[in-house]
TrEMBL record:
Presence of keyword DNA-binding: yes
PROSITE patterns xrefs: HTH_CROC1
GO molecular function per UniProt: DNA binding
Transmembrane segments: none
UniProt organism field: Cereibacter johrii
Protein name: DNA-binding XRE family transcriptional regulator
Tree of life domain: Bacteria
Amino acid sequence: MNDMVTIPREEYDRLRAAAEDLADLQSYDRAKAALAAGDDELIPADFANRLLNGESPLRVYRDLRGLTQAVLAETAGVNRVTVAEIETGRKQGSIATLRALAGALGVTLDDLTE
């Protein structure tokens, strides 16, 4: 198991670049497959930027889905005021509440927590 192979630096660099390209292609294929299977979704840049800028994920995903606070609250089985308080940061919301909201929005619990 102590076999050693010596190759020129140029060949090593070429092989390493090819391996990185292959890894990128495999990641791309996995992402496309997840999208096709419905396991992942694309988020428009303006919504992604709102998340990156620290806006409430609950509000961003609610807006992305085109829901009002009242409709989201009804769908999730929570109070509309609770939705408003979580969106504004006045309350964090219990795990059960956040799980219900995440389910109603079709996102994971992690998507709603920062």
